[in-house]
Write a structure and sequence with these properties.
This protein is mostly beta strands. The protein has a single domain, classed as Immunoglobulin-like (Sandwich), CATH 2.60.40.2550. It contains 1 helix and 10 strands. The strands form 2 sheets. Strands 3, 5, 6, 7, 9 and 10 form a 6-stranded mixed β-sheet that branches. Strands 1, 2, 4 and 8 form a 4-stranded antiparallel β-sheet that branches. The radius of gyration is 24 Å and the shape is elongated.
């Protein structure tokens, strides 16, 4: 028969090992899972190169949300004919609220004269309580 203190010490040590194992595991936080851009609404053929008359479709997933999050989409004219470098295009900003994990989509139709040729940056931000928690970006080329 083991002395009682050995049983208690063994339990204590096992508890410490379990606690160490749990704290070593990474706890995931809310984040954007991906950013997919395509010419087709189904996003079946991802691309970042578009013609002047192409529509632009994008989606981003959100995972491990603590509750309601806001997804904000922005298009920035990085190096575009007739635009100042890195000029935001606020008229194309869109914002969506998600109550839990899910997907946000963003689509843009070209203006009647077509997209100005150049490079753009598509940016998606995940906001929690007004604070940016994650961001994904991709460069888009219009040729």
């Amino acid at each position: 028969m083991k002395p009682p203190y050995r049983t208690n010490v063994t339990r204590f040590l096992l508890g410490l090992v379990a606690l160490a194992a749990m704290t070593a595991c990474s706890v995931s936080t809310a984040h954007l899972t991906d950013l997919v851009i395509a010419k087709d609404k189904d996003l079946s053929t991802p691309t970042t190169t578009f013609a002047k008359t192409d529509s632009i479709y994008a989606k981003s997933g959100v995972a491990n949300t603590p509750g309601k999050v806001t997804i904000q989409w922005h298009l920035i004219a990085e190096k575009v004919e007739g635009q100042a470098p890195n000029a935001p295009i606020p008229t194309l900003d869109k914002s969506f609220d998600l109550d839990s994990d899910g997907t946000s989509t963003y689509d843009l139709s070209p203006p009647p004269s077509g997209w100005p040729v150049g490079t753009y940056k598509l940016e998606v931000d995940m906001m929690v309580d007004g604070q940016q928690k994650d961001q994904k970006t991709a460069e888009i080329t219009i040729s």
